[in-house]
């Protein structure tokens, strides 16, 4: 919704980004850390990742098993709901297509709840994890993923706001129905498309009602 | 929750807090009570349509009806904070949207347990909203604020915090100066460490609810120290200022 309001004397000060920014975002070269509580420290000897719920072959990988899966390089742009965007981030990890092919979603499976070490959760449509759009990141910028950025392994779903890219991921549960995760229960969007500036539940309602 | 719509607020006052920090008191046409710890998003629009948004914690308590106070630190090269510092005076209008955030919040209830607040620099802002809310509500749960600053001139809300500590026996203010302490200072002069956090927690009669806000380094370290002391991670809530904003 555009209006005629403007702030006298305000002008762009940051150099215009050479990238196309989603609405309301600015570019940063740093990699800010955001999380709701203490950083869980998960040793790789204790780490495991599960993929279960509405699947025909529930999976549970140890660190060694997971690292033996085929890995790929990903260069992606990330957009945080706190208004920063970072372009061209380089990751190495395992595609969700690989993992979901092993587990075999049932026809009823339409949503995923990501459960994390430390108790964080977030919800996503299953379709958003398929088709090369999502991966479990194990390395960032050529280094093992640091704990404060979600290491040893985090979900990365770069086309949605970055809170959907759950840090310290422990289990992906396939479900028939959508349900809110941690930030979603606190009023954040169920989907989080940065290009539609879908930050809060209100934005979901506005988009559904066609009022924006 | 109520709808979050952009509204045009009017600046009622601009209060210098430190050389690099100012508080902007805004009157909102559609004010609604916030929860202590929540933030608003502020949006600036240039005549050519260019927009920039930043989020700022509310410093005022929900009892201060019709207004919000946003305390803003001047960020080097900060597009939004720079404009607010240079250009904004009482009577000016600013677009805001909020209140936002349902997790880093504290309610002053008669049942409220011990509270440990840890701030680094401008991270004190949402914690100040909690302290003011607590004061307005007349709640006397044992409360400690451990506040880390570089130098004496960096202490935001200094007089108010000293007055609060002087008049409320259930509130303890612990300052630590990491670079320069005032003359004659006998308190802490180092970054918060495990021993300092343990001393802060020992001033409280039971394991506290913890709220930590500040730069990433301080928040990461402090949350780890508190977790290592056996405080459950559900009782430790954090909010960080990443660089680059």
TrEMBL record, chain A:
<protein>
    <submittedName>
        <fullName>DMSO/TMAO reductase YedYZ molybdopterin-dependent catalytic subunit</fullName>
    </submittedName>
</protein>
<dbReference type="InterPro" id="IPR036374">
    <property type="entry name" value="OxRdtase_Mopterin-bd_sf"/>
</dbReference>
<feature type="region of interest" description="Disordered">
    <location>
        <begin position="1"/>
        <end position="23"/>
    </location>
</feature>
<dbReference type="Pfam" id="PF00174">
    <property type="entry name" value="Oxidored_molyb"/>
</dbReference>
<feature type="domain" description="Oxidoreductase molybdopterin-binding">
    <location>
        <begin position="37"/>
        <end position="183"/>
    </location>
</feature>
<dbReference type="InterPro" id="IPR000572">
    <property type="entry name" value="OxRdtase_Mopterin-bd_dom"/>
</dbReference>
From TrEMBL, chain B:
<dbReference type="InterPro" id="IPR017938">
    <property type="entry name" value="Riboflavin_synthase-like_b-brl"/>
</dbReference>
<dbReference type="Pfam" id="PF00970">
    <property type="entry name" value="FAD_binding_6"/>
</dbReference>
<dbReference type="InterPro" id="IPR008333">
    <property type="entry name" value="Cbr1-like_FAD-bd_dom"/>
</dbReference>
<dbReference type="InterPro" id="IPR001433">
    <property type="entry name" value="OxRdtase_FAD/NAD-bd"/>
</dbReference>
<dbReference type="GO" id="GO:0016491">
    <property type="term" value="F:oxidoreductase activity"/>
</dbReference>
<feature type="domain" description="FAD-binding FR-type">
    <location>
        <begin position="4"/>
        <end position="106"/>
    </location>
</feature>
<protein>
    <submittedName>
        <fullName>Ferredoxin-NADP reductase</fullName>
    </submittedName>
</protein>
<dbReference type="InterPro" id="IPR039261">
    <property type="entry name" value="FNR_nucleotide-bd"/>
</dbReference>
<dbReference type="InterPro" id="IPR017927">
    <property type="entry name" value="FAD-bd_FR_type"/>
</dbReference>
<dbReference type="InterPro" id="IPR050415">
    <property type="entry name" value="MRET"/>
</dbReference>
<dbReference type="InterPro" id="IPR001709">
    <property type="entry name" value="Flavoprot_Pyr_Nucl_cyt_Rdtase"/>
</dbReference>
<dbReference type="Pfam" id="PF00175">
    <property type="entry name" value="NAD_binding_1"/>
</dbReference>
């Amino acid at each position: 919704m555009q209006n005629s309001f403007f702030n006298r004397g305000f002008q762009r000060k940051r150099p215009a980004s050479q990238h196309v920014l989603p609405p309301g975002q600015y570019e940063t070269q740093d990699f800010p850390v955001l999380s709701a509580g203490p950083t869980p420290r998960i040793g790789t000897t204790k780490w495991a990742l599960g993929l279960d719920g509405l699947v025909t072959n529930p999976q549970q990988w140890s660190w060694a098993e997971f690292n033996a899966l085929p890995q790929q390089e990903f260069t992606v742009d990330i957009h945080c709901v706190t208004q920063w965007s970072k372009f061209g981030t380089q990751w190495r990890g395992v595609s969700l297509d690989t993992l979901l092919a092993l587990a075999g979603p049932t026809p009823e499976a339409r949503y995923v709840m990501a459960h994390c070490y430390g108790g964080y959760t977030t919800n996503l449509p299953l379709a958003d994890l398929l088709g090369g759009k999502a991966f479990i990141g194990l390395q960032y910028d050529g280094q093992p993923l640091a704990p404060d950025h979600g290491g040893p392994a985090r979900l990365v779903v770069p086309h949605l706001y970055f809170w959907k890219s759950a840090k310290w991921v422990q289990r992906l549960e396939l479900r028939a129905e959508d349900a809110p995760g941690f930030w979603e229960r606190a009023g954040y969007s169920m989907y989080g498309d940065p290009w539609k500036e879908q930050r809060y539940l209100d934005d979901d309602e506005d988009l559904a009602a066609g009022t924006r | 929750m109520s709808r979050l719509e952009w509204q045009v607020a009017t600046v009622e006052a601009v209060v210098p807090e430190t050389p690099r920090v100012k508080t902007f008191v805004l009157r909102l046409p559609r004010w609604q009570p916030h929860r202590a710890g929540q933030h608003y998003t502020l949006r600036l629009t240039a005549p050519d349509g260019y927009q920039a948004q930043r989020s700022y914690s509310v410093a005022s308590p929900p009892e201060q009806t019709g207004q919000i106070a946003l305390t803003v630190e001047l960020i080097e090269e900060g597009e939004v904070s720079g404009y607010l510092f240079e250009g904004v005076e009482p009577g000016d209008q600013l677009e805001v949207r909020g209140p936002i955030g349902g997790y880093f919040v504290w309610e002053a209830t008669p049942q409220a347990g011990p509270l440990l607040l840890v701030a680094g620099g401008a991270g004190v802002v949402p914690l100040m909203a909690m302290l003011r809310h607590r004061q307005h509500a007349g709640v006397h749960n044992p409360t400690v604020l451990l506040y880390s600053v570089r130098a004496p001139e960096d202490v935001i809300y200094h007089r108010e915090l000293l007055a609060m500590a002087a008049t409320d026996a259930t509130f303890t203010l612990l300052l630590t100066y990491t670079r320069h302490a005032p003359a004659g200072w006998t308190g802490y002069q180092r970054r918060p460490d495990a021993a300092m956090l343990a001393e802060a927690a020992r001033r409280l009669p039971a394991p506290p609810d913890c709220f930590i806000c500040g730069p990433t380094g301080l928040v990461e370290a402090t949350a780890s120290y508190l977790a290592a002391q056996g405080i459950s991670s559900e009782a430790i809530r954090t909010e960080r200022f990443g660089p680059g904003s």
